[in-house]
Write a structure and sequence with these properties.
Strand content of chain B: 15-25%
Structural class of chain B: alpha/beta
Chains: A alpha/beta (296), B alpha/beta (409), C alpha+beta (89)
Distance between the termini of chain C: 52 Å
Strand order of the largest sheet of chain B: 3-2-4-5-7-6-13
Oligomer: heterotrimer
Number of strands of chain B: 16
Shape of chain B: globular
Order of helices and strands of chain C: EEHEEHE
Distance between the termini of chain B: 62 Å
Number of strands of chain C: 5
Bound molecules: iron/sulfur cluster
Chain lengths: 296, 409, 89
């Protein structure tokens, strides 16, 4: 190992704590992200997960399987008890899908964030309910085909814009919020390290973008490339906010055309110029909002 | 941090049912308490929060945002080794239905109280048993109590039963909302030392906990060769068998309790003046107080009537009940809820199947009376009616099987 | 009554989880041309299953745990990895 790769690996505290090859689909960046997560966090954790695409099902780590409806509260219970018995050294970490985060588990997550619970919450955002067969969630992008948003005469894919969770979490006043993706490996590793520290003061939330070859109907070898393109097209800007101060961790000077990302995904194969424009507008609007909030 | 106040002597205090719950929880020294308000039990969380803030309770109190979160907090805190508590009622109980199954399925000894109340659909804010019965298949231990002292004592006993390594199941102490939650009685608040002594045996018992020091994983172990179904069958059987063990456990824990505190509730059921009775009323909850008064009165008039107060709802104490009812001439069951699909009350439906399973003659005249929904009183006169009709049926007269008390002309 | 598990509930002590071989999942497999490889380590970092490692200064792919996703080939800056049909020798 050399150069940047070696520098990244120097952040690993632990050997790989996941089993070799989990049950995740080939090419899934979430499997990679979970491996890296625990290499950085180490063993002194209790993991929390829900039914869904959660690779940490196959670990050698202590873990609690939770309901999708209340994972953040389940984390709270354990975290509070550990605090009471003086085990603040243990990190409670969740690796949870976008459905359980933005939809059915949102209420407990919002409340736990507002209470300032010391939890590390990672949202594995693959932009739909992938494990149950690609049903639309509120993280599904506008215009996308899913198995509950079809393309036909009366509708053309998902109608609404995404519910942009990272900013929603920021407005809860949590101690650390970041967006991340495996395409920017070192950025992710550094953010996990910061989150591990931030969790001593309150909630740390990492919104991890994980292209899903099955649900996006895209080539599996391109999943990392797509996660990089998502950043380069400003589709998924990389930023972090420590104590509410938002700053970009990757500035895109010359954005790549959104089409480069979209054309890899058959879920957007129907998209026409007008619809692509609408998606661009959503992205521009979000970027402008982030720019306004950013201190750097 | 202030140390919890330690009462060295029992103390008499006038309190309502909710405060009785709060005292019992405080004395049981929970580690994590989840609170969320819902009428008629909100004061439980108010007292526990207040005592925690004032320093007489040393717990982590989590003010959650909904009942499904209360159960999440309690389950994980218990899985990591803590003693936990939450209280709820009706709509809230139903809102944590997934959590109820989760807690029981993973054998997590959560102790919870439920202030019985009508369920949503017809907008009422009043008592009934509809909520407590509608969660009877979640796999919990459920008891239903008669008065406020019994609430306090039953919650303390619940920890001894739920956390016992022979059992390891969540336990719900139900009490009639409004009737008991708001009624004030002088109660004996036990001394902290006595409660500590009563709960001390739990300290020896070791249960599995989730800790990074020795990781446990959840799921069906891979050594079940065929598929998950075999593993699931085994764990379901063990769960069901553990529930059966609760029957003896609740009786012995009641005796242990009596030895320290001098009060007994007779365990699974209380048989009141049933020995020489010809006919027997069967009821649960606060209505048993009224029923006992009426039984006494009718006894004075020469009617040989008794009462079975059903304390344990899950597991259903069918053996004990059948033993009392053997050879009786008529049974009248009072229900405060409706068992949809059977067009009768829940307790009646439970009792009928218990009698059949225990081999009592199906010809035994058995009647059902539905009353007291949404805070309607079940009056002395109504209980008299139930006894008179049961008596008539026992003598061979034709009587309607199910009587909806307030709908009678 | 015959039980297979000595636990009352469906959770148990975690042993080392080795994972199941995933050979069968694959229809293409990675072949590494060592002459092109400069041991930069990106494939090792990026393999989602964690089946690539460096042994004696040589990049080794443990095919038992390779799902054939092709990410290593796609990410290798030196184009040292090619995906070939599983049927090919
Ligand atoms: S094909 Fe995929 S699984 Fe196989 S070695 Fe390459 S990156 Fe790893
Ligand atoms: S990425 Fe390519 S060049 Fe780098 S170590 Fe792997 S095979 Fe060699």
């Amino acid at each position: 190992m050399k150069g940047v790769a070696k520098r990244i690996a120097s952040h690993f505290q632990e050997e790989d704590l996941l089993s070799a090859a989990t049950g995740m689909c080939p090419g899934c960046p979430a499997e990679l992200a979970a491996r890296v997560l625990f290499k950085v966090l180490g063993k002194n954790v209790i993991t929390f997960r829900t039914p869904g695409c959660q690779p940490i099902f196959m670990t050698r780590l202590a873990g609690i399987p939770c309901l999708m409806t209340n994972i953040a509260s389940s984390m709270t219970g354990a975290r509070r008890y550990l605090h009471k018995i003086g085990r603040d050294d243990v990190t409670c970490v969740a690796f949870v899908g976008d459905g359980a985060t933005a939809d059915v588990g949102f209420q407990p997550l919002s409340a736990a964030a507002a209470r300032g619970e010391q939890l590390l919450y990672i949202c594995n955002d693959n932009e739909a309910y992938m494990n149950t067969g690609v049903q639309s969630s509120s993280a599904t992008p506008q215009g996308s085909w899913t198995s509950t948003t079809w393309v036909g005469d009366s509708h053309r894919g998902k109608g609404n814009e995404v519910k942009y969770m990272p900013l929603i979490m920021l407005m809860h006043g949590v101690s650390y919020v970041a967006t991340a993706t495996m395409g920017y490996y070192e950025d992710y590793v550094l953010k996990v390290e910061k989150a591990k520290e931030a969790v001593k003061h309150g909630m740390a939330y990492i919104h991890l973008h994980t292209p899903c070859s099955i649900g996006w109907r895209a080539p599996q070898e391109k999943s990392i490339e797509m996660s990089r393109l998502a950043v380069q097209t400003n589709y998924f800007p990389l930023w972090e906010a420590e104590d509410g101060k938002l700053k970009f961790t990757k500035r895109i000077k010359k954005p790549t055309s959104l089409n480069e990302l979209i054309k890899l995904q058959k879920r957007f194969s129907h998209i026409n110029d007008q619809e692509l424009d609408r998606l661009k507008q959503t992205i521009d609007k979000r970027l402008a909002l982030l720019e306004n909030l950013a201190v750097e | 941090m202030n140390k919890p106040a330690v009462e060295t002597k029992p103390n008499i205090e006038v309190c309502d049912g909710n405060k009785a719950v709060a005292h019992a929880v405080r004395l049981s020294r929970p580690d994590v308490v989840a609170v969320y308000p819902i009428t008629p039990q909100s004061a439980v969380g108010e007292w526990l929060s207040r005592w925690n803030d004032e320093g007489t309770l040393n717990a982590e109190v989590v003010r959650v945002e909904g009942e499904n979160s209360s159960m999440g907090v309690c389950c994980s805190a218990s899985l990591t080794g803590g003693r936990v508590f939450t209280g709820t009622s009706s709509w809230g109980l139903l809102f944590m239905m997934d959590g109820l199954h989760y807690a029981a399925g993973y054998r997590i000894p959560v102790v919870m109280t439920n202030a019985n109340r009508e369920t949503p659909g017809i907008f009422t804010i009043g008592n009934s048993s509809q909520d407590m019965w509608s969660v009877r298949d979640a796999g919990w231990i459920q008891v239903n109590v008669e008065d406020n002292q019994e609430i306090l004592d039953a919650v303390i006993m619940a920890y001894r039963i739920a956390e016992d390594t022979d059992i390891l199941l969540p336990m719900m102490v139900c009490y009639d909302g409004f009737y008991l939650s708001y009624r004030k009685d002088p109660l004996e608040i036990p001394a902290q030392d006595d409660v500590d002594a009563f709960l001390a045996p739990l300290k020896q018992s070791k249960r599995n906990i989730v800790t990074p020091d020795d990781p446990m994983v959840f799921g069906i172990p891979s050594f079940f060769p065929k598929d998950q179904g075999e593993g699931c069958t085994e764990f379901r059987y063990k769960h069901s068998a553990a529930l059966e063990r609760v029957k003896d456990k609740i009786d012995t824990v009641d005796k242990d309790f009596e030895a320290i505190f001098g009060r007994s509730y007779a365990g699974q059921i209380e048989a009141y003046r049933t020995d020489d009775a010809d006919i027997v009323l069967v009821a649960t909850g606060s209505v048993c107080g009224t029923a006992k008064v009426v039984v006494d009165k009718m006894r004075d008039d020469g009617v040989k009537v008794g009462l079975i107060k059903v304390r344990l709802l899950r597991p259903f104490p069918k053996e004990k009940i059948a033993k009392v009812l053997e050879g009786k001439k008529g049974i009248g069951v009072i229900d405060r809820s409706v068992c949809f699909g059977y067009h009768c009350g829940h307790l009646y439906m439970e009792l009928k199947s218990a009698l059949a399973l225990e081999g009592l003659p199906t010809t035994l005249p058995t009647l059902n009376f539905i009353g007291g929904l949404a805070n309607l009183d079940i009056t002395v006169e109504q209980v008299e009616t139930t006894i008179n009709l049961t008596l008539a049926a026992s003598k061979g007269e034709t009587v309607e099987e199910v009587t909806w008390l307030s709908l009678e002309e | 009554m015959k039980f297979r598990c000595d636990q009352e509930n469906s959770w148990f002590r975690a042993g080392p989880v080795l994972g199941q071989p995933v050979n069968e999942w694959r229809y293409v497999r990675p072949i590494i041309k060592l002459s092109k490889c400069n041991n930069c380590g990106w494939c090792e970092l990026y393999c989602p299953t964690g089946c690539i490692s460096e042994e004696d200064d040589e990049v080794v792919i443990h095919l038992d745990y390779c799902k054939g996703c092709g990410i290593c080939a796609n990410e290798c800056p030196k184009d040292a990895i090619t995906m070939i049909d599983e049927e090919e020798e």
